[in-house]
Amino acid sequence: MNFNERLQEVKEKYSLTNAKIAAYSDVSEGAVRFWLNGEKVPNAESIIQLSKNLDLSTDYVLGIIDNPISLKKTIESAEPLNDDEKKLIDIYRSLDDDGKAVVKAEAVKERRRDNPNVNR
Prior knowledge:
The protein is mainly alpha-helical. The protein has 8 helices and no strands. The chain has helices at 3-13, 18-25, 29-37, 44-54, 58-61, 71-77, 83-94, 97-114. Helix 2 (18-25) packs across helix 3 (29-37).
């Protein structure tokens, strides 16, 4: 799905007017009409503003993914790292590229041992 199709879908789903989309994107209503007609595409800042104001991921707004991920819910539902996980991340970050490659390979092997159906 391309951007103008997704924007039309979002407009209908959330009962938005062109004026509301313009306000959420910090652009004119004329710009929104161009977007909806597929004549122009928004700049990155407009996409970010629209996504934030609608609480949707930029990937969804751009039509890259089809699941309307809520940014707030994603952040709120993230499980905090425990002390062991924090230590592992610190160790991993201190490694050079070769060391990181070894850790990744071992982690993949371990995950496969626990769950043989995992491909990566």
